[in-house]
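Input/output pair, single chain:
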Amino acid sequence: MPKLSSQKITQFLKFGVVGLLGLCWDTGTVYSLRPFVGLTIATIAAYFIAASINWLINRLWTFRNVGNQHHFVIQWLRFLAGNSLGFFLNRGCVFTLFHLSPVFKAYPVLALAAGAAAGMMANFHISRKLVFHSESTQTKRTTAEIVPFQPERAVVQNTVSSRTAVVNSRSKVG
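Output:
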């Protein structure tokens, strides 16, 4: 079993609190927009509204000590893009429940809660690794070094393949 640091546990708990608040924003948005645009569009729009508010709270509270090396717009876009797996888990669960039972259509909060639970772990790990990461925890990438031409360096002369030698021996030039 992997060792969990106290920082990771604290971040997970804060992320969960933000997620519960996000469920409130998500639900409020669905119920507010549903009479005007229908359940499907309200559910999709609500995700992006709740995700954007969650990103801001996570930036300011959950990951405030590690995750602000990017411009806020870039980080917000990274959050939405990175959590696309969570989006498909979340809204996939929600729409599946909507289609399975009329109870979930009548009370969308039930489907939204199940969807939030379905996407939470993926969103936490992706957010922690790709969006709100500190430079020190990233693996250092090694790059190839370009060495300038060095004429004094010895070059092996007999590196021609045996096939080249055979082909050259057959050609008669002259």
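Residues 7-63+71-132 form one domain. The radius of gyration is 28 Å.
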